[in-house]
Amino acid sequence: MMTMEAFGLTDVGLKRSNNEDAFAIRPELRLYVVADGMGGHSSGEVAAQMAVQQIVAFFEIQDLSEEATWPYPSYDESLSFEGNKLRTAIALANEQIQNYSSEHPESRGMGTTVVAALVAGERLIIGHVGDSRAYLYSGDRLSVLTMDHSWVSEQVRLGFLTEEEAAHHPFRNVITKALGTRDQAQADVLEMEVAVGDRILLCSDGLNSMAAEEEIAQTLARREPLEPTCRSLVQLANQKGGEDNITVILLERRA
User: Fold this and answer.
1) What is the pLDDT of residues 202-237, one digit of tens each?
2) Which of 2, 36, 102, 105 is the least buried, fewest Cβ under 10 Å from its Cβ?
3) Domain limits for position 172
């Protein structure tokens, strides 16, 4: 079983009056989660907190074994057992947010992104919905592990926009998938190996919408301990404008 060290930090930024991000670091569950809520009347804040709490609660209370009958509607044979658990936890969070929204008309339209990392033996499992991201910093190279569920990201994939155009497009904040906004919001799930010394960054788009990937990479390249690195990333986003809430979790494989 790989050993991870982690630190997380959230900041309201410079332009928002409240923080609609949420995060959890639960080393005893080997689970790390970032969510970025949306919706008026503080409902984005509620959605993000509900997503994080539901995903954590799933891993706290479920005692599924691989030998047991899978009790949930779907099981993806292309994923590991733990990968299916993470996808299911995210799906149940989607259901809970939808139920809350239907019972509270003032919260209609509430939703949240989520990106989560789960350590499973010698593998790391990443699940995400929306435009919160996971990055891998290995050696001296920064790689994006997730693919944004956003309008501009789809246009880039189709060849209609360049990365530079997408970064400044007026629709850059339009996401195409979020928890709570539709009956089905299946998470993309990635399973990967991580080498000793590699770092994994989970973040809300308040970081990467402000700071270029080169700037994020330069911050990670200093190889400072996790806490000052997280503080430097938040400071970087605020120095670049701080237009959104900023949340980061930084993981490093120790053994």
Assistant:
1) 999 999 999 999 999 999 999 999 999 999 999 999
2) 105
3) 4-253
